[in-house]
Amino acid sequence: MTFWTEGEPIADQAAPDGPIETRWERRQFGAKLVNPANRRKLTVIVVGTGLAGGSAAATLAEAGYKVRSYCYQDSPRRAHSIAAQGGINAAKNYRNDGDSVYRLFYDTVKGGDFRARESNVYRLAQVSVNIIDQCVAQGVPFAREYGGLLDNRSFGGTQVSRTFYARGQTGQQLLLGAYQALERQIALGNVEMHARHEMLELVVVDGKARGIVVRDLVTGAISTEFADAVVLASGGYGNVFFLSTNAKGCNVTASWRAHRKGALFANPCYTQIHPTCIPESGTHQSKLTLMSESLRNDGRVWVPVRAGDDRLAADIPEAERDYYLERIYPSFGNLVPRDIASRAAKNVCDEGRGVGPGGLGVYLDFADAIARLGRDAVEAKYGNLFEMYERITGDDPYTTPMRIYPAVHYTMGGLWVDYDLQSTIPGLFVVGEANFSDHGANRLGASALMQGLADGYFVLPNTINDYLAAGPFRPLTESDEEVVAARALVEERIDKLLSIDGDRTVDSFHRELGHIMWEYCGMERTEEGLTKAISLIRSLREEFWTRVKVPGTGETLNQNLERAGRVADFFELAELMCVDALHRAESCGGHFRAESQTPDGEALRHDDEFSYVAAWQFTGTGEPPVLRKEALEFEYVHPSQRSYK
Amino acid sequence: MNLKLRVWRQTDPSSRGRMVTYLVEDISPDASFLEMLDVLNERLILAGDEPIAFDHDCREGICGMCGMMINGVAHGPSRATTTCQLHMRHFKDGETIDVEPWRAAAFPVVKDLVVDRGAFDSIIQAGGYISAPTGAAPDAHATPVPKVDADAAFEAATCIGCGACVAACPNGSAMLFTAAKVGHLGLLPQGQPERDTRVVGMLEAHDEAGFGGCTNAGECTTVCPKGIPLTLIGRLNSDYRKAVTKRG
Ligand SMILES: Cc1cc2nc3c(=O)[nH]c(=O)nc-3n(C[C@H](O)[C@H](O)[C@H](O)COP(=O)(O)OP(=O)(O)OC[C@H]3O[C@@H](n4cnc5c(N)ncnc54)[C@H](O)[C@@H]3O)c2cc1C
Ligand code: SF4
Ligand code: FES
């Protein structure tokens, strides 16, 4: 059976060459400008109001463009970026600890396991410093030291302190900054805001992205919206696994509809699984909650030595406990990187040694830390996290060890974009987690917030001019052929979903799809498992389209209808993720193929064969997609294999 | 555990709603309140009934999307806890629980437990920002901010815009929400140039949106999941008086 075919390679035409430090400046200089008087005549649609979309919409409006902004929540302030806790990186070197733009660039390329573009990453590191300035000017209340200057911490295993933070709410505070800038532009009449609206289709006319079809989630009304360019800032697709740390509404629909219309989808299989989440407590579980990784600084991870040992933690003597991270990785111990810690937890649970409901959990024990530092010191460091844990589980981590388990957290893959953040459909730009651009096969902690704001405040508002300089494009009407067709597609799909009237709920399908993905396309992937997953997904998808039950009508607020549309798209994405994971017969970053490991069980890359971005072209539901390779070249950071033993 | 739920059902903004009783059996005490509603909804769908509409997104207590009156209390019985973070272990087996939407003139019901909180966005539009167009910012260290001010600004900035304060207030006032934003920005040096216009503009928008006046009832801070203190309202009032006096 052919799962995919290979097509022509692609290349990033927008990236300048020459010395890496001057590429961004030269691209900005080379990009065409739009006369301020003409900007009023140009409309840009921005889908999404998270860090990427909120900052882009506000900045484009400040520049004088007419902006139309969309989000599915009831207010732009509620985008999923709000949930980010840890912090945001920037190469400010305020600590004088040897940080620099080059070091942030180097760490990010290496952290991405040599599967990202050097030019993009370098620009990200350059722009990072402006982000902090911008946010402080907006009143983002970052943590400060007694002298009044900004505080920094080190995050995600880097050796420098370059992470800026606002207690455990960095995402919220940054998002409120962007949201307030956006609200200001709304008040000035430069942005038309459409909350509780969902994009369900992309309108492509004359080969250019010219608009979207949206559904008003309150009235159910379907409308077509036109513009000179469309920006997708619709976030990541981790919810394909059903259980993840993402907000319940996070979805792939906007990206997937664009993919079906011709935008290539890059590296869909690169998924980040976070090791310290609160485990499932039963079949009612609707999402998973992340616990800060900092807990691994003082907590010790263990499981019983014997499989099936169901004694309480306190009744298991020291000699019958396996502190497996300390045993397998003596030099890094409990602090091994995210993917290694996650995989190790899965392995011990697969051996039947997991703890808690369903055997899906490992202990994170603070008893030694409390004995060594005292309860007060532990409380000072982790008090709010312990409280959060107790609120959710009802257990007191001061007396009983915490239980943790890995959960899907972030998706590095996304729509393919060039250096200008433009997709393969002219006029369709993609920013934030929705694109694939900067993190390669693995994202470093505190780098997603940085990328979202870099894209939205600084990169896109410069590169989009080059495209818009050719506008305004020809006016469209509701009766244009492509517009009628796009709208019909949406209406037909809604009618179909409502008319099946089967005997299974949307959530039951989504859960089952999530199980398949977690089992076969999660922390460890094999050729056999992925092949099996593809056939399971196909038959479940068929079942979905014959047995799903969506109650109610399309003319009102109908949350099940919304979910049904999202799950339908997840089905198609899931298959592509498995095909991508199957074709990439190497391990790299968040993608671990059991067949490709070193003798001591570490991820093994095959640079000779796989040093490329896998960009996929859609050919039809269930049809083999076409693989288009973008070769990656490393002029500055030489690929090496990592080791944490 | 088994529960008796009495839930507000309303088809759309213009129709009249009513309380409907549901027996919900076999719920895990480890489920969250929203997960309990998920389970009920799954059962309703399979039985051919219309599921209950309610707002939610992050389910981590940070996006401010969820919120309902549970036994007459905004976000339910646990202090400093959003509805999504409330767990069933805080209820008794066999208990009857009333579930209703936020009730306030400025928050019309959209459907069942879903309300329209757009009025909050219009308050922010009227001045809840610092005008700092992208690219115009000086270096972040150009203006040091005393740690006490930065910390106090942060505390005020933790408001998640959920609307519980309005729902709890006998006057349907959004003064705590407004005061949190006025306090956050007014405590920072960057927020000074627009301090007067901000407080005046936001208060005007507050009243225009149909929120009631503040009579210091204090119910708002009791239900606030982020513990936004009443003292911020005092601060807002004094800022307002100063701004109006200056304007003459
Ligand atoms: C629990 C958690 C903690 C994290 N902590 C950190 C951290 O400490 N540091 C860090 O750097 N990163 C962190 N991340 C990652 C980071 O938060 C996200 O990657 C980032 O915020 C994504 O921003 P975004 O703007 O791309 O998308 P989002 O914030 O997800 O916004 C998506 C927007 O698109 C809209 N939308 C989606 N689909 C549609 C549609 N079809 N129609 C209309 N609108 C639509 C939504 O309404 C929303 O407004 C964390 C992630 C999680 C889950
Ligand atoms: S002040 Fe408190 S209760 Fe009111 S909106 Fe903000 S967080 Fe919610
Ligand atoms: S769902 Fe986000 S705060 Fe409750």
UniProtKB/TrEMBL annotation, chain B:
<dbReference type="GO" id="GO:0022904">
    <property type="term" value="P:respiratory electron transport chain"/>
</dbReference>
<dbReference type="InterPro" id="IPR050573">
    <property type="entry name" value="SDH/FRD_Iron-Sulfur"/>
</dbReference>
<dbReference type="InterPro" id="IPR009051">
    <property type="entry name" value="Helical_ferredxn"/>
</dbReference>
<dbReference type="InterPro" id="IPR036010">
    <property type="entry name" value="2Fe-2S_ferredoxin-like_sf"/>
</dbReference>
<dbReference type="InterPro" id="IPR012675">
    <property type="entry name" value="Beta-grasp_dom_sf"/>
</dbReference>
<dbReference type="Pfam" id="PF12838">
    <property type="entry name" value="Fer4_7"/>
</dbReference>
<dbReference type="InterPro" id="IPR017896">
    <property type="entry name" value="4Fe4S_Fe-S-bd"/>
</dbReference>
<feature type="domain" description="4Fe-4S ferredoxin-type">
    <location>
        <begin position="150"/>
        <end position="180"/>
    </location>
</feature>
<dbReference type="GO" id="GO:0009060">
    <property type="term" value="P:aerobic respiration"/>
</dbReference>
<dbReference type="GO" id="GO:0046872">
    <property type="term" value="F:metal ion binding"/>
</dbReference>
<dbReference type="InterPro" id="IPR006058">
    <property type="entry name" value="2Fe2S_fd_BS"/>
</dbReference>
<dbReference type="InterPro" id="IPR017900">
    <property type="entry name" value="4Fe4S_Fe_S_CS"/>
</dbReference>
<dbReference type="GO" id="GO:0051537">
    <property type="term" value="F:2 iron, 2 sulfur cluster binding"/>
</dbReference>
<comment type="similarity">
    <text>Belongs to the succinate dehydrogenase/fumarate reductase iron-sulfur protein family.</text>
</comment>
<protein>
    <submittedName>
        <fullName>Succinate dehydrogenase</fullName>
    </submittedName>
</protein>
<dbReference type="Pfam" id="PF13085">
    <property type="entry name" value="Fer2_3"/>
</dbReference>
<keyword id="KW-0411">Iron-sulfur</keyword>
<keyword id="KW-0479">Metal-binding</keyword>
<dbReference type="GO" id="GO:0009055">
    <property type="term" value="F:electron transfer activity"/>
</dbReference>
<dbReference type="InterPro" id="IPR025192">
    <property type="entry name" value="Succ_DH/fum_Rdtase_N"/>
</dbReference>
<keyword id="KW-0408">Iron</keyword>
<feature type="domain" description="2Fe-2S ferredoxin-type">
    <location>
        <begin position="18"/>
        <end position="103"/>
    </location>
</feature>
<dbReference type="InterPro" id="IPR001041">
    <property type="entry name" value="2Fe-2S_ferredoxin-type"/>
</dbReference>
